[in-house]
Amino acid sequence: MDGGWSTIESDEGVFTSLIETLGVKDVQFEEIISLDADSIRSLSPYGVIFLFKWTNDRSSSPSHPPDGSYDTTAVDSGLFFAAQTIQNACGTQAILSVILNQESIDLGAELSSFKDFTTGFPPSLRGDALSNSEPIRVAHNAFARASPFADETARPPRPDEESADVYHFIAYTPVNGTLYELDGLQPHPISHGECDLESFPDRVIEVLARRIARYPEGEIRFNLMAVVRDLRIRAREFGDAELLQREERKRRGWAWENTLRRWNFVGFIGEMMRGVVALKEGEGPSAYADWVEGAKSETLKRKGYSQ
């Protein structure tokens, strides 16, 4: 890596493996398909990560956000909040905004050290510390999709630009009796009123519903991920063999998918095609031509055409 931060997917297996790489214990991520309080309540989450298409919301200002209110004293009261100072890190930053604000989570040595080191820092300096943390950056980049191509002409959009391709992660979590929206692009944490872990599902659904309502009708490009206690622990505590088996199978699937993310197969595919073509050419010109025409015919059939 060149020292930058790569884009990672909004994926429960990626996020879970990322925090485990950093040393966090007994925490996982679960995608929430249905936007209702019962779906969230069943998971007893520490918080949620929300992914949405970023727009330049001109209703926001340094004095008040579009919803809720800025809490200018929360950081002084112990809330971890970091300004976003670098491209592509917002996913990991949103994850840490939940993880580092829940005292019951075992952070492990790396993140405990990072949290202790940044205690007392203002959000801007915490953002710089996060951006310059090599262990966190290396763990983050380990889950970027491998690609042999690099577009040197591409540049990230400026904050004041609209883009159809820019998506942003933010966190919602209850801290010290208040529901906070933690968005590194905002100047302060955003308070959405009184809330604890028990009331969190109902309260966060209300906030998310209002946020989604600000988008044009029909916009569906959102993703919601719950930060929860490792479901295998729950399965063992309740003696739920079926749940445990399902979770273990899911973990194996995540491990396989994450392994594939670390490799690009362009070279392999190119060599394989070269070998197949050489093999067909060795059988004679007519055999090669018949093979090509047969492949075209099969492709047309799959598309619903007939010759």
Automatic annotation (TrEMBL):
The record marks 84 as: Transition state stabilizer. Pfam families: Peptidase_C12, UCH_C. It comes from the Eukaryota. Gene3D superfamilies: Peptidase C12, ubiquitin carboxyl-terminal hydrolase. Residues 4-229 form the UCH catalytic domain. Signal peptide: none annotated. The record marks 183 as: Important for enzyme activity. The active site is at 90 (nucleophile), 168 (proton donor). One of its GO terms (cellular component) is cytoplasm. Its EC number is 3.4.19.12. One of its GO terms (molecular function) is cysteine-type deubiquitinase activity. GO terms for biological process: cytoplasm protein quality control by the ubiquitin-proteasome system; protein deneddylation; protein deubiquitination. It catalyses: Thiol-dependent hydrolysis of ester, thioester, amide, peptide and isopeptide bonds formed by the C-terminal Gly of ubiquitin (a 76-residue protein attached to proteins as an intracellular targeting signal). Transmembrane segments: none annotated. Keywords: Hydrolase, Protease, Thiol protease, Ubl conjugation pathway. Belongs to the peptidase C12 family. This is Ubiquitin carboxyl-terminal hydrolase. It comes from Penicilliopsis zonata CBS 506.65.
